[in-house]
Amino acid sequence: MNTSPLMALLICAATASSAYRKGYNPVLWFFAGGPIGILTLLVLPDTKKVSRTDEENIRLRKRGDKIGAVLIGLFVGAIAVFWLVQQH
Fold it and tell me: Considering the entire predicted model, what is its pTM?
């Protein structure tokens, strides 16, 4: 039995859960999951901090979610390149 898909799903779910706790979009971060995604999320600030203004937390949340979107794009691009290389 191959456990790799299950492990990948668990890592993505852990990334989404961590994103939710920090105030980021959990659906976006689920797909940005994986080792790079979870490490990136670990260094992003918590956007639910009371000590910051709401505007600053919103700005941080948007920036963090943009970073997650870029990670998704890089991941999809890497899969496309890998697929193209395999075709030749």
Answer: 0.83
